[in-house]
């Protein structure tokens, strides 16, 4: 979005101008909503009430983008509309349809002022006309769409191809529950550092201070917060807690670490799993790799905060090019592979519109190469834990099957309910597949291989 000088000065006090600016960063700048919002919140001087509204509108406008376009379209009538103006219309209509405490006149007044100031007088009239027409007419009926795939895609605001894809793997009822879950507000998930505190001690600590919290239903390391993030708490500052989604908390314990092992985390950043692995070691050691120096710096800071730095060696390198500076192979390797991120569509709703089959095919090739590399670095009898935050079968089950066909010296080491994993998350093959609608977490996939000793 090209920002006019007068807009920068005149609109700086407008909360809805901030909303639009952030939406443009997401839609046109290609950034992730959670990252842009975190950055805004850290630097904002606005009060908490304004920040809460901004987060709700930004997330909602991205989550419901396809639905909003469907509702707005009759009033645009095929006119060419700049991307920032379309974002302005989306966020205005989102507030009218999905929020009930804001008067429509306030929404329209701000939208018209923003359009005139960053555009021109005619643009202000156009925005005013579209929004006032929208207010005068009943909502366009989605139920009249005959094609069931298109109807679901617009109802739940997701690309058609993803609806069609998941309809092949889920029942009609499960598909709707899954799609609906993608528009839920994500919970704030936190993992304890078991070297400093237990789950019960952490829950008691927050309850004593009047902060609502509950234990994770899928991980004994996890805590759930509905609203207030605990990152400003003393427990977080002291390294007793770290931010991590509950699904990914399932990964580290699957290595069945005794504490003395040589462990590799092949794709370590941003570090939730790496710090978890490190906390389960004693006189063992973790080698953590990532291609991004910036992300490794964040991981390094978390390790320092949690007093785990002496257990971990960081390497800024591509795992495919990594060669250990010692002769022994690794006892356990964790490969949390680059993926489509389709399990994160609640937390990063823009993923619903950015992915296609071609991009997934490219990722599958990278995953295949990383599995080959990991296999070569694992000692006989060792465990390889492969995980993704994807729900696409080509990146998960099919990838595992392909790997096993090429490696007769590897077999699946089935994950069992006795390991503390809820039965609902276990597949017949012994994989973990987490659908977001089941426990209101991120979607996730985990499989565990064991390398034969022969």
| CA-based gyration radius | 24 Å
The helix content is: 40-55%
Shape: globular
Please count the beta strands (DSSP E, at least 2 residues each). Answer: 12
The helix count comes to 19
Class of secondary structure makeup: alpha/beta
> Can you tell me the number of structural domains?
4
CATH topology of the largest domain: Rossmann fold
Uncertain regions spanning at least 5 consecutive residues? none
Q: What is the average per-residue confidence, as pLDDT, rounded to a whole number?
A: 95
CATH architecture name of the largest domain: 3-Layer(aba) Sandwich
What is the C-level CATH assignment of the largest domain? Answer: Alpha Beta
Distance between the termini: 61 Å
Q: What share of residues are in beta strands?
A: 5-15%
Secondary-structure map:
Blueprint: H1 5-10, H2 15-27, H3 33-43, H4 48-63, H5 65-76, H6 83-98, H7 104-118, H8 121-136, H9 148-156, H10 160-167, H11 172-181, E1 188-192, H12 199-208, E2 214-215, E3 222-225, H13 234-237, E4 241-243, E5 262-265, H14 272-279, E6 285-290, H15 293-305, E7 312-316, E8 330-336, H16 351-354, H17 357-377, E9 378-388, H18 397-406, E10 410-412, E11 432-434, H19 436-439, E12 444-451
Parallel strand pairs: 5-6, 5-8, 6-7, 8-9
Antiparallel strand pairs: 1-3, 1-4, 2-3, 9-12, 10-12, 11-12
Helix pairs in contact: 2-3, 2-4, 2-6, 4-6, 5-6, 5-8, 6-7, 6-8, 7-8, 9-10
């Amino acid at each position: 979005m090209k920002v006019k000088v007068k807009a920068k000065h005149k609109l700086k006090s407008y909360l809805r101008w901030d909303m639009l600016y952030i939406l443009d960063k997401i839609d046109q700048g290609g950034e992730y909503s959670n990252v842009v919002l975190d950055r805004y919140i850290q630097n904002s001087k606005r009060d908490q009430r304004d920040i809460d509204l901004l987060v709700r509108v930004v997330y909602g406008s991205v989550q419901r983008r396809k639905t909003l376009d469907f509702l707005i379209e009759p009033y645009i009538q095929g006119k060419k509309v700049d991307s920032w103006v379309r974002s302005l219309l989306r966020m205005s209509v989102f507030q009218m349809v999905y929020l009930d405490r804001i008067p429509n006149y306030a929404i329209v007044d701000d939208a018209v002022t923003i359009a005139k100031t960053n555009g021109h007088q005619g643009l202000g009239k156009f925005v005013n006309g579209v929004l006032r027409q929208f207010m005068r007419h009943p909502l366009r009926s989605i139920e009249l769409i005959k094609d069931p795939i298109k109807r679901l895609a617009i109802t739940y605001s997701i690309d058609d191809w993803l609806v069609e894809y998941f309809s092949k793997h889920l029942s009609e009822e499960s598909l709707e529950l899954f799609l609906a879950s993608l528009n839920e507000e994500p919970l704030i998930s936190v993992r304890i550092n078991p070297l400093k505190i237990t789950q019960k001690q952490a829950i008691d600590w927050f309850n004593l201070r009047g902060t609502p919290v509950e234990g994770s239903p899928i991980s004994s390391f996890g805590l759930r917060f509905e609203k207030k993030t605990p990152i400003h708490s003393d427990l977080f500052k002291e390294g007793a807690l770290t931010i991590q989604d509950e699904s990914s908390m399932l990964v580290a314990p699957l290595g069945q670490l005794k504490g003395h092992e040589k462990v590799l985390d092949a794709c370590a950043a941003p570090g939730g799993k790496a710090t978890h692995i490190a906390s389960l070691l004693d006189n063992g050691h973790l080698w953590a790799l990532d291609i991004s120096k910036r992300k490794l710096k964040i991981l390094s800071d978390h390790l320092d905060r949690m007093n785990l730095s002496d257990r971990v060696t960081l390497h800024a390198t591509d795992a495919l090019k990594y060669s250990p500076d010692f002769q022994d192979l690794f006892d356990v390797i964790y490969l949390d592979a680059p993926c489509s991120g389709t399990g994160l569509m609640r937390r990063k709703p823009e993923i619903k519109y950015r992915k296609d089959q071609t991009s997934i095919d490219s990722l599958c090739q990278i995953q295949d190469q990383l599995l080959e590399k990991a296999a070569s670095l694992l000692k006989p009898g060792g465990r390889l834990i492969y995980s993704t935050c994807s729900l696409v079968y080509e990146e998960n089950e099919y990838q595992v099957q392909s790997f096993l066909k090429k490696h007769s010296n590897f077999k699946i080491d089935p994950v069992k309910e006795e390991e503390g994993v809820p039965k609902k998350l276990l597949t017949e093959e012994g994989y973990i597949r987490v659908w977001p609608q089941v426990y209101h977490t991120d979607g996730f996939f985990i499989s565990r291989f064991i390398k034969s000793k022969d």
